[in-house]
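Job type: complex structure
Entries:
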Amino acid sequence: MGTALLTDRYELTMLDAAIGSGTHDRECVFEVFTRRLPSSRRYGVVAGTGRLLSLIEEFRFGDAELGWLRDNAVVRPETVDWLADYSFTGSISGYREGELFFAGSPILVIDGSFAEAVLLETLTLSVLNYDSAVASAAARMVSAASGRPLVEMGSRRTGERSAVAAARAAFIAGFIATSNLEAGRSWGIPTMGTAAHSFTLLHDSEEAAFQAQVDALGPATTLLVDTNDIASGVELAVRVAGTALGAVRIDSGDLPVQVAAVRAQLDSLGATGTRITVTNDLDEYTIASLRAAPVDSYGVGTSLVTGSGHPASGMVYKLVSHRDSAGNWVNVEKKSAGKATVGGRKFPVRSLSNGVAVAETIYVDSAPDANSSERTLLADLVTAGTADQRYIGAAGTALARIHHASAINELPDDAFRLSRGEPVIPTDYRRGIT
Amino acid sequence: MGTALLTDRYELTMLDAAIGSGTHDRECVFEVFTRRLPSSRRYGVVAGTGRLLSLIEEFRFGDAELGWLRDNAVVRPETVDWLADYSFTGSISGYREGELFFAGSPILVIDGSFAEAVLLETLTLSVLNYDSAVASAAARMVSAASGRPLVEMGSRRTGERSAVAAARAAFIAGFIATSNLEAGRSWGIPTMGTAAHSFTLLHDSEEAAFQAQVDALGPATTLLVDTNDIASGVELAVRVAGTALGAVRIDSGDLPVQVAAVRAQLDSLGATGTRITVTNDLDEYTIASLRAAPVDSYGVGTSLVTGSGHPASGMVYKLVSHRDSAGNWVNVEKKSAGKATVGGRKFPVRSLSNGVAVAETIYVDSAPDANSSERTLLADLVTAGTADQRYIGAAGTALARIHHASAINELPDDAFRLSRGEPVIPTDYRRGIT
């Protein structure tokens, strides 16, 4: 199945009507942005871009799609014919994947005819909204963990394909691995995992289960010690695996207290090198609360893949400029109450002072001159229909992770407070003198 | 791409170790349930079952998957060979899709060898958790709308494939249509949609845009009237389309006030049959707040596809019974703090009094005798590896919608209060005399 019907019906009816009125081939600029960050957030993290570029390449109307549109009279026959030849031939620039965003940041700019560009609205927003929601939550968890490694384990708490995207978004924001195998295969992300409670319960005793696991996976494995009593589980784990046991995992209980007790017990048993990993419904706040506890790594699920309270990023896809019937560019904006937009093509830069971000400066209509205190934020992603392959696939995912690490390093310290607050830098619009 | 790698790595490492210890072919019973409903909720709605049955049929390890597992040494070579022959040959019973669930309801019961059944954990939970979260939110919106039709429009606010599942889950819970075209094609759900603000902004005037839309789609279309001033938009819409205009859509502003004003204006213009549809960030609470306003239909997006505050359902997949080395059945349960489970195979019924639900009664270990005041909740979904085709595809989706309408009709009136509260019926466990 292709991606062309992952689309709201109104995009096709708009196309249909625009073909009728002769406006469908007007050159247009659409932009993707969020009007505001979620209330508690000081910055957001762009993710999904690399996935989106591949999905746009697959955005074609094949026989199955065309037949369905025709049979259901979604659009007129001449529009079905137009769709048969469709592929996106325009250009897309945007924030690099892994980049930070703030209110109004134009994270994607789509140049193309109205017809070509309007069709990509839903797919673009689905990908960027979800993936950015996960990456934005993940980045907060990474900073709350203060350098301790985090593993994404939330596949079971989001749709089965979103799970793969979530693993990828978390990796870009600094998680080190995922439990999701398809994310390993598709995106080159390291995968981790050893055993669930069912493995212990399957065996005639906890000891038999631990022995089976150590026999198969070696003593460096991670044993899950809370199926019954944790202290007994830890004692048994070291007895079976020896002091070379890799790690124990704790998935329940009052973690700060529990973790300290387990650390002391492991040390007293001589398993001083055995690590402790915790996985009990963590979010950025509980991770921060464990800073003083001797945790070695975190596994995070539900809160991560649901954006930790903000499961959608609020991104919208808006027409900001187009050529009119005389061929002149016209800036456009809607005036809807509470949802007004800013017309005109944007040229965003991150304003820096001594290497620290101080503002998201968005020039409207004309680009600023190159300037060492302003980092340009738009990169060419698709040129005349062809995507820059550097941003795609496993290599693109790895590149996004590197870019994120560099971009977040520019933020002032205030960005990393977990409490509710304003965006850590303001968004300033600047209009050229025209 | 198949579905076999939409799986957490630990399922394969458990399989690997169980093959090593000779426990992999022990007969097992796994159950899917949620420990508690989200705090504000009085009932939940099962969704995803029909999708899951198809995804389980596609759960095979092909050359690409096997090669990746081998190359990455996820499991030992003999386990890779075992996976090459895998298909699920066990049996699955469960709550009918569209059925209601409460704390502890065993919505899916998987019978099979440990090896066969453990592999389905992640896929099963991904599907049931997400789809049920959406259906549970959707059902509340349907009751808040008091009979007015609701359309699902949230594709852009969730992952691109989750969007299709969300449209389906909302339809099962009583929504009448979706904006998502793939949901129309895959699941036979009616699709709706006409135009966005970009269509108005593309044209040289709002009048030209309305005229283009009416020319293409006829006067029975829905015109979006809030790109500029709503009163001017409504006046123009009726002038262009005539009093046979199908509907106007309002996507911004203070809806109760706005809607009443638009209704009065439409009536004064003679457009007494023109309907009003609203689409401005609705959830069950804002829908309920519009009960007194002359709204004709609602379009719902973000809050629906993100489960209205509860984006994951909390479903877990737990081993409850298995045969031991002597071939005897052993009930098992974990004792982890706050996460203890109830061992033993469950036989759930909905206890009714005069046709009204009074309890979720869960018999443990043995089924009750047939009883007119207890509706049996488990249906045979998969028998010896073969799914009941009635529950699959578009026909299965339609059947689930019918079943939901019937099941929800059994709930006491208290179920439909939107305020926070306890589950509307208690869950009672009953153990047979053994």
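Summary: Residues 320 and 343 of chain B are 5 Å apart (CA to CA). Chain B has two domains: 9-134+310-431, 194-295.
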